[in-house]
Amino acid sequence: MAKYTFKVYPVGQGRTTYRTIEISGEETLDELCEFILETFDFIHEHLYEFCMDNRMYSQNSYQYAPEDGELSTDVMIDEIGLIKGQKFLLHYDFGEDWMFTIHVQKIEDETETTLPKLIKSVGYVEQYPGWDDEEEEF
After folding, report:
1. DSSP per residue over the chain, as a string?
2. Which residue of 3, 12, 55, 127 is most buried, as measured by CB atoms within 10 A?
3. pLDDT tens track of the chain, all 138 residues?
4. How far apart are CA 32 and CA 79, in angstroms?
5. Residues in a beta bridge with 19
6. HSE value, Cβ hemisphere, 13 Å, CA-based, for 27
7. 73-105 pLDDT tens trace
8. d(Cα 39, Cα 42) in Å, to the nearest integer?
9. What's the CA gap between 80 and 46, in Å, rounded?
10. For residue 7, how many C-alpha atoms fall within 13 Å in the half-sphere facing its CB?
11. Cα(20)–Cα(8) distance, rounded to whole angstroms?
């Protein structure tokens, strides 16, 4: 079992807005998505996919709601064959098309499973810029 250190950032904002996280290889991609969204203060209410070749709507992806033999995000991180230096994408909310680059910075042996951990937080990004609760019409 391994422990992974990832630098995660919205595409194009890697120097100004990012999170460095550690997560056990026994966690699933679903749990990774949940933790990433939590560290960016996003509401988790949309579909998502992990694009392993760093391209949106990739054929090489893990889907939250797989169809027709697609790979599921309900897979342990250790099982997907990540390597140090690899980059892949979290494509979240297919309407807004949030794209988070995930850069594998470190892979270490882990003797016991640990909870996901936020190591560093830089910058802020708003999930719904320009959205105002008071403007909602009933």
Report:
1. -EEEEEEEEETT-TTTSEEEEEEETTSBHHHHHHHHHHHTT----S-EEEETTS-TT-SSEEESS--TTPEES-SBGGGG---TT-EEEEEE-TTTTEEEEEEEEEEEE-SS----EEEEEE----SSTT--GGG---
2. 3
3. 999 999 999 998 989 999 999 999 999 999 999 999 999 999 888 999 999 998 888 889 999 988 888 999 999 999 999 999 999 999 999 888 999 999 999 999 988 888 999 999 999 998 877 665 555 554
4. 13
5. 8, 121
6. 21
7. 999 999 999 999 999 999 999 888 999 999 999
8. 8
9. 23
10. 15
11. 6
Buried/exposed 7-18: b ≥16 CB within 10 Å, e otherwise:
bbbbeeeeeebb
